[in-house]
Amino acid sequence: MGGGGGIGYYGGAGADNLDGLKDVARDALKSPERPERRRAFISFRHSDLDKVNFLRMQAKNKKSDLNFIDMSLRVPFNSTNADYIKSGIRARIKNASITIVMASDDTHKSKWVNWEIDETAKMGKKVLVIDARKNAKSPLPGAVGSNKSSVKVVPWKIDNVMSAIDDLTQ
Hints:
Structural class: alpha/beta
Distance between the termini: 55 Å
CATH class: Alpha Beta
Order of helices and strands: HEHEHEHEHEH
Number of domains: 1
Number of strands: 5
Oligomer: single chain
Number of helices: 6
């Protein structure tokens, strides 16, 4: 037959546990909620795909503080028409809350990353640059310097990244 063991569904027997449950519920309501998931467009050189995929996996990990919806391209546009490609990327940036740039030693050489930073700034949105350079003498993309008021650079540490996302998208 089975039985309940005399313990209510709230973990205790009797009315005295109701006060404890009320305290737990009250405390839960007072605690700050996790901010809503931000929509992020990720800008990067193809050679940094492994780093970006790691970042994407961290955002999907429920135990991670990193929490965003990836709005970036998974598959490159099947076109050589730069205007068509820009139009598609522009639409994704427009629908994102923030652009995240994965900056490694060679990112400054990418005309597309620089264009995406400039385009984000033109839309009045913020850019978060994750500094993943191994050589501190390697420059950041030139568009970082020309859009200083829209850009924040942080080291590649998950806590710094999520905190910066929250700061830039509020």
